[in-house]
Amino acid sequence: MARLGLERTIWETVIRRASVEAIRGNNPLLHGGQLQSVRIQSQLAAKFSEDTVFSVAQLNRYGQCPFKFFMTNVLRATPAQEKADELDAAEQGDLYHEVLRKLFESVGTKVDIAWRASVPERLDKLLDEAWVRWDGEDANRRHQGRERALQERMRAMLHKWWQFEEGQLAERQGVVIPKYLEWSFGFPLEEGVASTSFEHSVSLGSLRMRGRIDRIDTTADERFLLYDYKSRSIPQGQSQGYDFQLQLYTAVVQQALLPNSKLAAAMYYSIEGVEQKGTVIKGAADDLGFGRRRKVSEEEWVRKVDGAINLAKVYRQSMQSGAFPVAPRVPLSHCARVCEFRHVCRFDPVQNARSEEFEGDE
Ligand code: SF4
User: Fold this and answer.
1) Contact (CB, 8 A) for 177 and 111
2) Residues enclosing ligand 1, CB less than 6 A?
3) Taking each helix axis from N to C terminus, what angle separates 113-137 and 144-171, rounded to the nearest 10 degrees?
4) For the chain, how long is the longest CA-to-CA vector?
5) pLDDT of 7 strictly over 90
6) What's this model's pTM, rounded to 2 decimal places?
7) Suppose 284 and one of 250, 264, 303, 304 were both cysteines; which one would form an S-S bond, judging by CB atoms 3.0 to 4.6 Å apart?
8) SS3 of residue 159 by DSSP
9) CA-CA distance, 336 to 79, in Å (whole number)?
10) Probe ligand 1: pick from 242, 345, 356, max atoms within 8 Å of CB?
11) What is the pLDDT of residues 312-352, one digit of tens each?
């Protein structure tokens, strides 16, 4: 009997799914990520109102794929994860951030030759100290052989990164100083954040923001360089327009931290990849060793920042109206292999193309 009950449940599920697919076949917009209930829409309007404080990561996530945003920020679904024996990617990123913050906190008032010469030894010490703390937090993960190998790998990466960084600092010696490290806004103040950080959010027009900026270098003549560290790859989406972290962070800094300063460059900075990608401003960055890197005019950058703020507001309106379509702008390889929701989102490139056609016909 129990077996019959199970079979019945399975068949009911199959029939229900088949009927949904039949409806989607006639109208791909139905069951396509648009929440129709007026009651739910009014709840969403309150949840994503002008009083809501957004992080750039949330807005970028909506830009990458509204359905992914729905899973994480509306349903608050968290994929099950097995406890790893060694540091996962996020923990490795935290460790790199901590080492670099402490390294640059030791600079003092000038990046001079003596400080530069001390860096390799400082990196080793900072990494070892951070490692001991991590190790002490979870003794169950002490698989000594693998752990040691990972630690040495990260050490080698930090030294490789320093070779590149030292070249840049040497070129800019006396001109720039890494001044604000882990500068945050809209978060509770805690140990390790820059003392200039503040707890309140920053408003860009009607958009309230919170965030943490990894590093801001300044010059004596009031220019600044903004960096966002990544452990490995630099996010795609800057040129496609769905990643606007650097634009929004620049606007926040110019409004709340350095109102009299000009942006010279805003860059993603991969530690292991030893590369930087972002925007360098013509004129403002000419003497800062950016070589033949493509530069944009200040006016062009201001247009991009304004565009990013406006796009973020459009996203907010879409969230309020319940629009969470399965419409990824990330590469399909991300859907196929990386996204933690790939098993539940029913992403179908053919179906998506049909939805776009259908919307165009309306
Ligand atoms: S797999 Fe792709 S379409 Fe599905 S939620 Fe993730 S990013 Fe969106």
Assistant:
1) yes
2) 65, 67-68, 326, 328, 330, 335, 339, 341-342, 345, 347
3) 150
4) 82
5) no
6) 0.85
7) 264
8) helix
9) 16
10) 345
11) 999 999 999 999 998 888 888 888 888 888 888 877 665 55
